[in-house]
Protein: Ornithine cyclodeaminase family protein
Organism: Nocardioides lentus
Amino acid sequence: MSDGLWLRFVSGPDVDAIGLTPAEVVDACERVVAAHGRRETVFEPRTHLLPDNDGRGHFNVLRGSVTSLGDHGVAGVKVVGDFVPNYTVGLPSELALLTLYDPHTGVPAAILDATWITEVRTGAMTAVGARRLARGDSKVLGHVGARGTAYANIVMLDAMFDLDEIRVTSKRPESREAFAERLRAELDTPVVVTDSTEATLDGADIAVEATRLTEPTPLVTTDLVKEGALLVPYGTVSALAPDLIDVIDKVVVDDWREAQSGEFGALRPHLRSGAVTAESLHAELGQVVTGERPGRESDTERILFWHRGLSILDVAVGQLLLERAEAADLGTMVRFH
């Protein structure tokens, strides 16, 4: 393969065979969040492609580059579908593809199945945020939503905190029951299935909202966010009450420019109404990780952490997978040029 340009295709089965641990994914994501805080990353806010498909779903396109990865930096582009009805045809709602490039020559280095990457880097971002924004003695985790990213959220948070109870719910009884059984097979922490957002989040120390709404609905209300709680909402369509920000002491985002882009996101109505502004924003998470801004400063603060999903996390986890694939000679080499 000395002639021409070649790239490595890392398939879903290859990703499974590499077997990155949750701790390795969290560490990779935390390093790149810190790099973002030090302004060592370049990325553009995500864009959306809405095909003419009767509202079945859309594509997100994420682009980013990280100077500290590889020998002299890595750039990447991920395209991920968001198709809620896919469960009716036996498919995940989110299927993704990531391409990695040399940022100095533009030469493609790899194509990766990024479906698993999307799931775990989302959970890792939740965990990185919780490490600095949740109370260290958090005992009850409430999780609304049972889609692919939900599993990584809970597994990574359970590994980080000494939890006494995990509550889960979702729109469909069959999905929440199956989700709970999957968690019970993996975790020692008791898992409780509830039939409502209220029962799941009321009194929770860490509350995660990952709903699959089709139109804004005020499921998460002020009375459900207890004193000292961390709320992590990241549903595509907002499930937050309009006045929720009134009881929040600190709003932290993964990236302020990203938070302002596009038409989707948990805090989109609150930005439009002026309830969340650049002046009221406490920090970007990278600023907290690097110590530029404080994280949690008291046990009574109610903190909201909104992460939309940064391309640089996909690039970081993708590059780690590529390095492991190269070391193990996994994947398929494809002639590019």
User: Anything to note?
Assistant: Residues 135 and 299 are 6 Å apart (CA to CA). The two ends are 11 Å apart (CA to CA). The chain has ten helices and 15 strands. The chain has two domains: 6-117+312-335, 122-309.
